[in-house]
Specification:
The complex is a heterodimer of chains A (131) and B (88). Chain A contains six helices and no strands. By secondary structure, chain A is mainly alpha-helical. Chain A has two domains: 83 residues, no CATH class; 48 residues. Chain A is elongated and about 70 Å long. The mean pLDDT of chain B is 79. Chain B has one domain: Arc Repressor Mutant, subunit A (Orthogonal Bundle). Chain B starts with a helix and ends in a 15-residue tail after the last helix. Classes of the chains: A mainly alpha (131), B alpha+beta (88). At the A-B interface, helix 3 and helix 4 of A face helix 2 and helix 3 of B.
Amino acid sequence: MATVVTGTSLMASDSKSSTMLRVAVRFATWILPPQRKDWAEAMFNEVAYVRSRRAALYWVLGSTLFAIRARASYELVSALTFRRPHKVLLGLSAAAVIAVIGIYAIQKPYQRERILLVVLHGCGKSSCAPH
Amino acid sequence: MAALISQQAHWQHGYDLSEETGLPSGTLYPILMRLSDRGMVESKWEPSPHQGRPPRKLYRLTSEGVDYAIEHSLPGNVKWRPLSPERA
């Protein structure tokens, strides 16, 4: 291809953006699921042929985000299918409890009182109420 | 898929496809992977003619992919339509 190739020089130079680019490439290649390593190589080899510095940075950014997305969905699928589902459920429950406590903690005092009243009122309607 | 079908006999690079379709790498490659998983796109490695540059992967539609693309690009088979200016 007889086009101007800046990607190669971008990857080879010692500037801050080149370092970031190389780190992103290594990270994305490492994070991609094992069966997709070949695709990671294909994606990042293209950087050497990208025509502008800006486009090369966007290319790497897009590829890195895709790698993270692919890994997340791979982990989720493998956790739900191959590993013990009760561990996943436990983890999700713990995350939900932490989220609720966090939301409660950032409320103003009068809002906390109101939340407590609503919860206690709800309990009163159900079996929580003292007989 | 339209970009691939426009040059169905020719192998194309990922970056060229991205430029032709306007899709960023993070959108284009998942599509290529899914098409490849379904046997609609085939790929091969090409060593770079320039010294010091990495090899590139080339892509093209398989016969199954061409059939699928033709079938789904016929006007009667297109399910999605852009809004007309009056309705937009």
